[in-house]
Design brief:
This protein is an alpha+beta fold. Strand 1 and strand 2 form a beta hairpin. It has a five-stranded mixed sheet with strand order 1-2-10-7-3. The chain has 14 helices and 14 strands. The mean pLDDT is 94. The longest helix has 32 residues. Helix 4 packs parallel to helix 13, helix 5 packs across helix 6 and helix 6 packs across helix 9. Protoporphyrin IX containing FE binds next to helix 9 and helix 13. Protoporphyrin IX containing FE (HEM) binds next to helix 9 and helix 13.
Length: 414
């Protein structure tokens, strides 16, 4: 007999500020007691926490569609082309973009720029012996790398949009910087439209041109679809990577033994990166909408009902991962769901990995004794979509610049 909704209704709202109680434990309790639960928050939705169920919800678009948005509540931007589509429409939008984010493309065209912007941003703070690991490093570098990769020419705008996304996702609703960040992200749509118009008039060899000239079924895509694709490339590309870098660096402050291990055994970085993605799961929750009645975890989910797949919780499932709350630097295999699953699996994962590996290892190399100022650490205000550290001020023994003649830090608008 399927369990009725009443039997599995819990008091849960993924938008509530993080409680003092350990959120990992709260999710583990939910996973044990009620792996598919119902909550009345946000007009009602199912909460799915077991690895296998989360994987199925993300993958099985015959039952769980992305149409109508992948967040609860639905996004205020309206429809996002690509992310909100199922195959075959999704495939038609994703195929042209794939080539701009392959492992080879990242290695050949972006890796040296990741190295460049890492040098520049670390040089900017290295002599002071003090910085914010979040804004100065984890926000600034992915913003520069992502905007440059896109082909965005005006460097003055790179930092502003990276900061705006971080403020919007990490600050409490109503905080002036949340309001400002939200305003900048909305305003940026107009700038994206201008850039795409400009690429249609004068095509270049860059991903903005790929989006501007995209055709589906032999016809140019509507301009607003192009805007939504670029918005998601920036939004999905910047703050998730920010969150991952910050979570790992703060963890390594609290676990000096693991920091020393990574410093002396750099060959561990690739498995460590996957483990940080699993354990700290930057993109915590992704939603779908049920389109065909389906039974999951002993509950019947009806068409039209919204479903929250807790990637975070799936990644901490003890049925799949031994000692799931531990960070095991050489964990292998590690089939985490941190980049999603199925046709929507993160298109930017090679870029994200390359950025993370270079930035985090460079911090350990150039600021080997950094210490987080613990009483100034601030978490994201919500655990809803992205989570991690809003601010992580740190001190370290001052070092020397590696590009003393570069003026690039000044051009970033930082
Ligand atoms: C650590 C960093 C990152 C994490 C944890 C992450 C996570 C995810 C997840 C979980 C999804 C699946 C969404 C779904 O199932 O609906 C996704 C999709 C996506 N990601 Fe990432 N992402 C990261 C970095 C990036 C980067 C660097 C880019 C691009 C510059 C990017 C662009 C996208 C896009 C465009 C999608 C939608 C793909 C589709 O619908 O086919 N992400 N990402």
């Amino acid at each position: 007999m399927p369990r009725s909704r009443d039997e599995v209704t819990v008091d849960f709202d993924h938008h509530l500020p993080l409680e003092a109680a350990d959120p990992d434990e709260a999710l583990a309790d939910l996973q044990r007691a009620c792996p598919v639960a119902w909550t009345e928050a946000n007009d009602g939705y199912w909460v799915v926490t077991r690895y296998t169920d989360v994987d199925r919800v993300l993958k099985d678009y015959r039952f769980f569609t992305s149409n109508g948005g992948i967040t609860i509540p639905k996004p205020r931007y309206g429809e996002s082309a690509l992310v909100d589509y199922d195959p075959p429409r999704h495939t038609a939008y994703r195929r042209p973009l794939n080539a701009t984010l392959t492992r080879e493309f990242v290695a050949e065209r972006v890796q040296s720029r990741i190295e460049h912007w890492t040098d520049v941003c670390l040089d900017r703070v290295i002599e002071a012996g003090r910085c914010d690991l979040m804004y100065d490093i984890a926000v600034a570098i992915p913003a520069a790398v992502t905007l440059e990769w896109l082909g965005w020419e005006n460097r003055d705008e790179w930092w502003g949009i990276g900061e705006a996304w971080h403020d919007m996702l990490s600050r409490p609703f109503g905080d002036p910087r949340y309001e400002h960040g939200t305003g900048v992200v909305s305003w940026f749509d107009g700038r994206i439209r201008e850039e795409l118009d400009q690429r249609r008039a004068e095509p270049r060899d860059d991903p903005l041109t790929t989006v501007a000239l995209m055709e589906v079924d032999g016809k140019p895509i509507p301009p607003e679809h192009g805007v939504s694709i670029v918005r998601i490339l920036i939004g999905a590309g910047v703050d998730t990577t920010t969150s991952l870098i910050g979570s790992a660096l703060v963890h390594l402050h609290f676990h000096p033994d693991q920091r020393r291990r990574l410093q002396s055994e750099p060959g561990l970085w690739p498995t460590a990166a996957e483990e940080f993605i699993r354990r700290f799961t930057p993109a915590r929750n992704i939603s779908r909408t049920c389109v065909q009645e389906v039974e999951l975890g002993g509950c019947t989910i009806a068409p039209g009902e919204r479903v929250l797949a807790s990637i975070w919780s799936g990644n901490l499932d003890g049925e799949v991962f031994d000692d799931p709350l531990e960070v095991t630097l050489d964990r292998s295999p590690n089939a985490h769901l941190g980049f999603g699953s199925g046709v929507h699996r993160c298109i930017g994962l090679h870029l994200a990995r390359a950025e993370f590996l270079h930035v985090a290892s460079s911090v350990l190399q150039r600021m080997p004794d950094y210490r987080v100022v613990e009483n100034e650490l601030v978490r994201y205000a919500r655990q809803s979509e992205v989570h991690g550290w809003m601010k992580a001020p740190a001190v370290f023994t001052p070092g020397v610049k590696v590009r003393p003649d570069s003026q690039d830090a000044l051009t970033l608008g930082l």
